[in-house]
Amino acid sequence: MDCAKLLTLIGLSLNMLGVVLLAFFATPAHGLRSDGAESFGIQNDSTNKRIRKYWIYVAITIFAYFIIALGFAFQAYPLI
């Protein structure tokens, strides 16, 4: 397998990984506050647990966008 095909395959794999991460761990688009609360309803979880979950999801979302951009760069490199 030549280098161009290998880079394209790596890029596609990174893009798929990024999309899967976004599908499972993206922060909701609707009013998720920085304390991790999603609504005004009664929350059973502790506030610290919700805050930690919120920031973990933010970190995974940023990482997923980075992986998608890196995958795009791997795919575009052989064309340059």
What would you say this structure looks like, in words?
This protein is an all-alpha fold and 80 residues long. The chain is 66% helix and 0% strand. It has one domain (3-29, 45-79). The protein has 2 helices and no strands. It starts with a helix and ends with a helix. The model has no long low-confidence stretch (mean pLDDT 83).
Summed over residues and divided by their number, the pLDDT gives a mean of 83
Largest sheet: none
- The string of secondary-structure elements, in order, is HH
First-last Cα distance: 19 Å
Number of H- or I-type helical stretches: 2
What proportion of the residues form beta strands (DSSP E)? Answer: under 5%
Number of domains: 1
Q: Got a strand count? A: 0
Query: Helix- and strand-based class?
Result: mainly alpha
Task: Round the Cα radius of gyration to an integer and report it.
Answer: 17 Å
Helicity level = 55-70%
Instruction: Please mark out the parts with pLDDT under 50 across 5 or more consecutive residues, or reply none.
Output: none
Give the overall shape, derived from the CA principal axes: rod-shaped
